[in-house]
Design goal:
This protein folds into two domains: 82 residues, TusA-like domain (Translation Initiation Factor IF3), CATH 3.30.110; 107 residues, Hypothetical Protein Ychn, Chain: A, CATH 3.40.1260. It has six helices and nine strands; from the N terminus they run βαβαβββαβαβαβαβ. The termini are far apart.
Length: 202
């Protein structure tokens, strides 16, 4: 069974990837599509149903698995982009990139209090971020003993991805003290940032 991994992709990419994969399999073969946002699931499902494809879906964690039996035909001239609905603006499909262990410009002590309040409030809001990225001195917030360690641990348990810059950990010689999240590289960080619907830089 052929698999299309469209996780982290925004419309129209999951549609384009699905259309291409279907053109590469034979009639009545099965295609599996992995998607991690509901808007794309709805768009892909509508696209397939309108072209008489037999589909089933199940959710495992944050990932939707669509299984498609190629029972219809998608004309080559069909524009997948036409099936993109605008996502609801109240969405968790956003990333917060934290580049320092303070918030704002000015007094350092105040900045440390503000970033602590900012991160400790995140678990309490309904619209939680998809991913948190920690760069430069921001990595100190993800270390063991950090004043926001408990809040970050809770966010991670509830599904927020936490990426911590490996180069930054090495520079500050703090890799052994990492307490939450995973060590990441600039390729993966850039991929997350470039595919996000919105990126916040507090």
């Amino acid at each position: 069974m052929k698999t299309v991994d469209a996780q982290g992709k925004m419309c129209p990419m999951p549609l384009i990837m699905t259309k291409k994969a279907l053109s590469e399999i034979s009639e009545n073969e099965t295609l599996e599509i992995l998607i991690d946002n509901e808007t794309s699931v709805k768009n892909v499902s509508r696209f397939l149903e309108e072209h008489n494809m037999s589909i089933s879906a199940e959710k495992q964690g944050k990932v939707f698995r669509l299984k498609v039996s190629k029972t219809g035909v998608i004309p080559e001239e069909t524009q997948a982009e036409n099936y993109c609905d605008t996502p609801n603006p109240v969405s968790s499909d956003y990333v917060i990139a934290i580049q320092k262990n303070k918030l704002g410009q000015g007094n350092d002590e105040l900045g440390e209090l503000l970033i602590k309040g900012f991160i400790n409030t995140l678990p309490e809001i309904e619209n939680k971020p998809e991913t948190l990225v920690f760069l430069n001195s921001g990595i100190f917030l993800a270390l063991k003993g950090s004043p926001v360690f408990d809040s970050l641990s809770r966010l991670e348990k509830e599904g927020t991805k936490i990426l911590v810059c490996g180069t930054c950990l090495d520079y500050y010689k703090k890799k052994e003290e990492l307490g939450v999240g995973i060590v990441s590289n600039m390729y993966d960080i850039l991929n997350i940032l470039s595919n996000a619907a919105k990126v916040l830089y507090p």
